């Protein structure tokens, strides 16, 4: 006789469409499609969970470009968005990235300073439905960074594909309430064991050959050498930063449209030479190896020191898109290995 689990539930796959439709009560449903992009969906048949998207769901809380205010005469109008959304099928590495971004954009609140209203207004309106990875893609190393392949926190609901059914777990009170509305049957402890088997198999397929023990000390000793070596290969396209789920650098621009001045913020990257331009000084980080060092220190040291979490989640996107075949996992291995 199977013993039921007090929190986990089961979703029959033939009821998947009902499940997605019910989530619409929580807001606009955004999910991965077969083209690899996270986009709004009207029907569950549009959702494709079969592969890990290269697209980054960060765009829905920190858009590539975003208008922040308009000025017309003496009137200033802010444009803080507050739309409710459901981010469905988000992988564990990206959920970890959301937590990193959230800490960054509200970093100064404890000191009595203002948090970023543009990011937080979107983040606070999200319902996050995680999808635990049944298998990795090339360059995934979340297991080494402690961010996957199973989400442990930072979500409202989490799905695990057990073959015949989905295991559905709440991550908080909001998730519990959604499950109660859906009247899902309870899962068993055997189902939870099957989830652990899925996790184990994914880690085995990932075949990560390193761990990050000692990274905090080693990076200060080896980062200059590694940055110089890989900086020679870098063509400064910025792809690694623009596809990263935790990169938070942005710039501002003002444009005039008739009598209206619009201010927009847009993604920027520490690898671009112009990012460190200082008036009257020049380029603060002119050599590419100094910019590569900044990237490595940010991902593997600075956020760990300030927030106790790495801002590299092991998603592998930067390695996947790099035209120079610079792989983050190789740089980490070189740092730890004492190269």
What does this 3D model show about the protein?
The protein has helices at 16-23, 92-105, 117-123, 142-145, 173-182, 189-206, 215-231, 239-242, 288-307, 317-321, 328-336; strands spanning 4-12, 28-32, 38-40, 65-72, 75-78, 85-90, 126-131, 157-161, 165-170, 186-188, 250-257, 260-267, 277-278, 282-283. The protein is of the alpha+beta class and 339 residues long. It folds into 2 domains: 9-206, no CATH class; 215-336, no CATH class. The strands form 3 sheets. The chain has an 8-stranded mixed sheet. Strands 5-4-12-11 form a 4-stranded antiparallel sheet, with no helix packed on it. β4 (65-72) and β5 form a beta hairpin. The longest helix is centred in the C-terminal third of the chain and has 20 residues, at 288-307. It starts with a strand and ends with a helix.
Q: What does the secondary structure layout of this molecule look like, with pairings?
A:
Blueprint: E1 4-12, H1 16-23, E2 28-32, E3 38-40, E4 65-72, E5 75-78, E6 85-90, H2 92-105, H3 117-123, E7 126-131, H4 142-145, E8 157-161, E9 165-170, H5 173-182, E10 186-188, H6 189-206, H7 215-231, H8 239-242, E11 250-257, E12 260-267, E13 277-278, E14 282-283, H9 288-307, H10 317-321, H11 328-336
Parallel strand pairs: 2-6, 6-7, 7-8
Antiparallel strand pairs: 1-9, 1-10, 2-3, 4-5, 4-12, 8-9, 11-12, 13-14
Helix pairs in contact: 7-9, 7-11
Shape: globular
Please summarize the sheet with the most strands: 8 strands, mixed
Structural class: alpha+beta
Average residue-wise pLDDT: 90
| SSE sequence, one letter per element | EHEEEEEHHEHEEHEHHHEEEEHHH
Count of β-strands: 14
- Structurally, the number of domains stands at 2
The main sheet orders its strands as: 3-2-6-7-8-9-1-10
By DSSP (H or I, 4+ residues per run), the number of helices equals 11
Low-pLDDT runs of 5+ residues are none
The helix content, as a percent range, equals 25-40%
What is the rounded distance between the termini? 55 Å
Strand content: 15-25%
Return Rg in Å.
Answer: 22 Å
């Amino acid at each position: 006789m199977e013993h039921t689990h007090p929190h986990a539930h089961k979703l029959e796959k033939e009821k998947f469409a009902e499940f997605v439709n019910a989530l619409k009560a929580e807001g606009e449903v955004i999910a991965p499609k077969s083209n690899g992009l996270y986009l709004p969906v009207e029907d569950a048949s549009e959702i494709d969970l079969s592969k890990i998207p290269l697209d980054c769901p960060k765009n829905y809380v920190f858009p590539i470009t975003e208008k922040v205010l308009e000025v017309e005469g003496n009137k200033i109008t802010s444009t803080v968005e507050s739309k409710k959304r459901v981010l469905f099928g988000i992988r564990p590495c990206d959920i970890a990235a959301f937590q990193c971004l959230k800490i960054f954009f509200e970093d100064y609140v404890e000191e009595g300073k203002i948090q970023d209203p543009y990011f937080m207004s979107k983040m606070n309106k999200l319902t996050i439905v995680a999808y635990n990875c049944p298998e990795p893609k090339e360059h995934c190393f979340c297991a080494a960074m402690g961010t996957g392949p199973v989400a442990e926190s930072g979500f409202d609901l989490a799905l695990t594909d057990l073959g015949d059914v989905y295991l559905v777990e709440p991550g908080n009170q909001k998730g519990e309430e959604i499950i109660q509305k859906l009247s899902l049957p309870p899962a068993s402890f055997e189902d939870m064991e099957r989830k652990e088997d899925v996790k184990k198999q994914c880690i085995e397929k990932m075949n990560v050959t390193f761990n990050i023990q000692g990274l905090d000390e080693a990076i200060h000793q080896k980062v200059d050498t590694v940055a110089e070596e890989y900086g020679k290969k870098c063509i400064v396209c910025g792809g690694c930063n623009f596809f990263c789920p935790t990169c938070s650098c942005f710039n501002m621009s003002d444009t005039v449209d008739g009598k209206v001045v619009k201010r927009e913020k847009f993604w920027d990257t520490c690898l671009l030479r112009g990012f460190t331009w200082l008036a009257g000084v020049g380029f603060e980080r002119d050599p590419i190896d100094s910019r590569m060092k900044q990237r490595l220190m940010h991902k593997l040291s600075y956020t760990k020191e300030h927030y106790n979490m790495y801002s590299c989640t092991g998603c592998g996107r930067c390695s996947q898109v790099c035209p120079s075949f610079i792989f983050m996992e190789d740089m980490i291995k070189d740092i730890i290995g004492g190269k």
